[in-house]
């Protein structure tokens, strides 16, 4: 069983090249202090029950992943997960309680596309106007995650299981983190520290022009409280040379 999951994880790892496209200024020690982390505390920008996130693709994509896994029987993934009640209890530690899936929750930001619309209609016809999630799940923006060392083995195991069924990363990673860790801090808990996400190409271009693509200027002035900026293509930016100690 474990070897099967490991093979599936290697084919579709949760990590992506996007992790290299952000730029953060916090070293390990200062990050722990800024985010008020200890040996049992994790960090994620946000955490929300999956059924309460309408107008995004996380819910439909997650439902499809479980449907596909149940239909194709290509891995006995449920045997490698905590039972649903245990998972519910673990998520409840963080104030996360999943409810029924409604029509509004099924809608995503691409619903105006005819193909997506009729797919949602068919899903409602099959499941009903209100149905349950196939498993307790949460979601969150996942480009910066801090995992305490003691929780890392279970976090990695759960990520491997979710990867084996092709569960969307911004559902899989937050759910694994919340189930594996005693405490999860979010951006709301660590103000004024925050991340900066640029969603449109023109926003990225404007920042590059404003700072002349100088990485050292990213966290100066009004941006001094930023944890990270995403995305930053480092190949397009100037990174100051780091002084090196003279050879003995």
Let me know the largest β-sheet.
3 strands, mixed
Average per-residue pLDDT, rounded, comes to 77
Shape: globular
For the record, give the distance between the C-alpha atoms at the N and C termini, rounded to a whole number: 53 Å
User: Beta-sheet strand percentage?
Assistant: 5-15%
Q: Could you please describe the fold and organization of this structure?
A:
There is one protein chain. This protein is of the alpha/beta class and 248 residues long. The protein folds into 2 domains: 2-19 and 27-190, no CATH class; 194-236, no CATH class. Helix content is 38%, strand content 10%. It has 9 helices and 8 strands. Strands 1-8-7 form a 3-stranded mixed β-sheet, with no helix packed on it. The protein has a 3-stranded mixed β-sheet with strand order 5-2-6, covered by helices on one side. It has a two-stranded antiparallel sheet with strand order 3-4. Helix 9 links the parallel strand 7 and strand 8 (226-230). Helix 1 packs across helix 7. The longest helix is centred in the first third of the chain and has 15 residues, at 58-72. It is globular and about 50 Å long. The termini are far apart. Residues 1-22 and 243-248 have low confidence and may be disordered.
List keywords for this structure.
single chain; 248 residues; alpha/beta; 3-stranded mixed beta sheet; 38% helix; globular; disordered N terminus; disordered C terminus
